[in-house]
Design brief:
Elements lengths: L4 E7 L3 H9 L4 H4 L3 E9 L5 E10 L2 E12 L3 E9 L2 E12 L4 E11 L5 H24 L3
Antiparallel strand pairs: 1-7, 2-3, 3-4, 4-5, 5-6, 6-7
Length: about 140
């Protein structure tokens, strides 16, 4: 990944439970702020998603885009942009580290928009996306359903 923004959070659950929430794309609108819909387009033989189409409405950015995913067990998932309307590029990863009673989740993200934007503003936007996603993920994993 090129220049990227990174943050992490500790979630009181094992890596498999955390990765199960990450892999449940259809539920993203319930916890991932700005995601209006997520639809799995293709899957790997093991049932994990390969390509997922998203509709995003996180003012001021509205976009429809498709990401492709690469899974490494319950330790890591990476993704990259296949196509979009506003985004030129997106690469990201969730990296999970087992801490015994908890899991450290590191989120890495690099986004490039088709509209010009100062690097500092772009990094700030990435940081907001990451922090919001990590907090939503933590709440979703740790809350009884």
């Amino acid at each position: 990944m090129a220049e990227q923004t990174m943050s992490s959070i500790v979630i009181e659950a094992d890596p498999a439970a955390v990765m199960a929430v990450i892999a449940d794309f259809e539920s993203y609108p319930a916890w991932a702020k700005g995601v209006k819909s997520a639809r799995v387009l293709t899957e790997y033989d093991d049932g994990r998603s390969r390509e997922v189409a998203f509709v995003l409405d996180a003012a001021p950015i509205k976009d429809e885009y498709t990401l492709t995913y690469d899974w490494q067990g319950d330790e890591q998932v990476t993704w990259s942009l296949v196509e979009a309307k506003m985004l030129k590029a997106m690469e990201g990863a969730y990296v999970l580290t087992d801490k015994g009673d908890a899991t450290e989740v590191r989120y890495q993200l690099a986004v490039d928009l088709s509209i010009p934007m100062i690097g500092m503003l772009k990094r700030k936007g990435e940081k907001v996306i990451i922090d919001t996603a990590l907090k939503g993920l933590k709440q979703r994993v740790e809350s009884p359903r």
